[in-house]
Amino acid sequence: xxxxxxxxxxxxxxxxxxxxxxxxxxxxxxxxxxxxxxxxxxxxxxxxxxxxxxxxxxxxxxxxxxxxxxxxxxxxxxxxxxxxxxxxxxxxxxxxxxxxxxxxxxxxxxxxxxxxxxxxxxxxxxxxxxxxxxxxxxxxxxxxxxxxxxxxxxxxxxxxxxxxxxxxxxxxxxxxxxxxxxxxxxxxxxxxxxxxxxxxxxxxxxxxxxxxxxxxxxxxxxxxxxxxxxxxxxxxxxxxxxxxxxxxxxxxxxxxxxxxxxxxxxxxxxxxxxxxxxxxxxxxxxxxxxxxxxxxxxxxxxxxxxxxxxxxxxxxxxxxxxxxxxxxxxxxxxxxxxxxxxxxxxxxxxxxxxxxxxxxxxxxxxxxxxxxxxxxxxxxxxxxxxxxxxxxxxxxxxxxxxxxxxxxxxxxxxxx
Length: 416
Hints:
By secondary structure, this protein is an all-alpha fold. The chain contains 19 helices and no strands. Helix 5 crosses helix 11 and helix 9 packs parallel to helix 16 (339-352). The two termini are 37 Å apart.
């Protein structure tokens, strides 16, 4: 009975999240119940909040990366990249579909925001190739594996806070799997476009189908995005070799902004306005998740995660990791609006079970894939709007390919 009472607040939180109750409200209800059942004082609750919020809001690098990527979006860098890709493949739909998915993955990886990337790219993808189901699925998969492993994402920040693993170490560990699943997503989109050809609707815009800009102009506009990608991917290695942060956040953030000013038509003041405005998205969500996480920590004080861990330990050890991945995926489907919220629930459990950072990363990626079958997920809503198809159709189209990726992820979790 004591064990059941310790996990009852968590069950309440999950039920409320499934019913689409705001995450802070759901967490508050669970925390109040835990305080009543465990005799936790208001002073303890206040201290927990005051300790948790600064840690979450102190995740500076993801905020900087997200803000800089937002400035690149506003300057038209990713639109130019897509137009440049279209010129390069000479309108071949299957190659362009693969390029779109690659751009979705790379842009999300740099910004940490799958929904924000999809808002920009989905209408352009619709214009370039039409509403190809496999293209939509490929973009969904690419977004999921990118924002769950990105150095700029809320999800990586939550992972780092809970596991105690530096974000840079987590990102380096998961990068090969981001690349593998991005390749899978590209193949899915390529195959779908080759099978269907272009699936345009009559009102599809033509700005990407027949780009009129000179190639040199497109290359110039794309330069800030290319530099930011270079800095995010190779910056840590270069810094280690040189012995100082020559491509640290200070250098690459300011350099990217000045490249936007030099190579695009964006005034310098507007570029810096975009940088500042771009920080609001992730800061707002970090604040909300900080509140939610403080409530989860109150529930943890009653031994909820120890209880779940003790129950899971009776299972064969070789099944624990796949079970954690599958649980993350299944929770992500109905409650995938804020993946960071789900991670705050499930990662403490798997950490108590002795999962390594890599194994916890698989769980994180499983939650992300589940979110791409969720009706409340921002990326899904952006794809639905951009491709002008009902979100129910997006979910149905994604399902076989998402499930296939989950099977691959389960395979990794068994053998790695």
